[in-house]
Amino acid sequence: MNLFMTNKLNLSFTDTEKVTKIYSNSSKNIFGKSENYHMFFCEGLILTKKIKSKFKITYFRKKNLLFHYINKTVFLGKVEDKNIFIHNISFGEKTKTSLNQVKFFNKKIKKEEISRSSFSDLRTIFANLSLKDSSIAGIAKSLINWKLTNTFCTKCGEKFANPINFKWETQCIACKKIYFPRIDPVIIVIVVKGNKALIGRSHHFPKKLYSCLAGFIELGETLETATRREILEEVGVYINNIKFITNQPWPFPSSLMFGLIAKAKNKKLKIDKNEIEDAFWISKQELKQVLYGKNNNIIAARKGTIARFLLEKWVKNEI
Ligand SMILES: [Zn+2]
Q1: Which residues have CB less than 5 Å away from ligand 1 (the ion)?
Q2: What is the per-residue burial (b if ≥16 Cβ within 10 Å, else e) of 58-79?
Q3: Could you report the per-residue pLDDT of 9-60, keeping only the tens digit for each?
């Protein structure tokens, strides 16, 4: 119920308040200034450094070989006294190699001793980033992905020019329409009945992984109607007493997750196998074991996710 709780609870991607978008008047030579920090993406992967079991975003302040391959740049914003720029790199058609881009660049970074970093999947490393780094990385990933996939004006059909201001929004030079990065709202809900909670898994989940049920909010829906529809569609359960718990930006590719709890009216499940692979009722005691990693058949949603947060809170009788 308390929106301000999230930061302290260490939900990944949520500590974004300190990112401010103040665009400088002169966007020329962004590479020459020492207060400018440059982070890199390639094929959706982020350049990070591994230190023991932790990861850190790799920032460059001086030009190196990677800068020759930049094909898209966005200004993320100012964090403390750093101006952070996000770059995507691609080797284009000129480079002749049998390697894919990520392997090509990872190899180059190592060989040229540019940094002890490599491109990695944010989805697999975010829990090992600091809250601050996960929050910056989350925005950066959504933003660069949106820029790379939205390259034509949907009003007049003109191809977007590479902007010189590196702003979040894109303006069509022909018809002047302005586009803002898109956010997709999603509900994620822990459905409970007495001492049991409903957990399920999608077809694309890693092996053994179970989570709370979730779904996109459709046009005209409120959080409540979307939740009622999703749960009924996926498992045939009617729910009531829907309560908002917390929320989390989710950069895969760019959602805002609304975390809720709801009470089930009926227990019998009618699983729609097109929507999900499996779902079942788990007791508080059993779920505790799963969360402690003491169940060999089930893995709960990872730490740092809103699903994990909901499951843990329920087990601790805090929601
Ligand atoms: Zn246009």
Answers
A1: 153, 155-156, 158, 172, 174-175
A2: bbbeeeeebeebeebbbbbbbb
A3: 679 999 999 899 887 766 678 888 888 999 999 999 999 999 999 999 999 9
Q: Tell me, in angstroms, the distance from the centre of ligand 1 to residue 153's CA.
A: 5
Ligand 1 centroid, distance to 170 Cα (angstroms): 10
In the chain, the domains with their CATH numbers are: 13-149 (no CATH), 184-315 (3.90.79.10)
Phi, psi at 241, each rounded to 5°:
50, 50
Q: What is the pTM of this model?
A: 0.92
Question: Residue 259 class from Cβ within 10 Å (0-12 exposed, 13-18 middle, 19+ buried)?
Answer: buried
What's the chain's length in residues? 319
Report H helices in the chain.
101-111, 122-125, 131-149, 223-235, 284-291, 306-315
Distance 228 CA to ligand 1 centre (A): 39
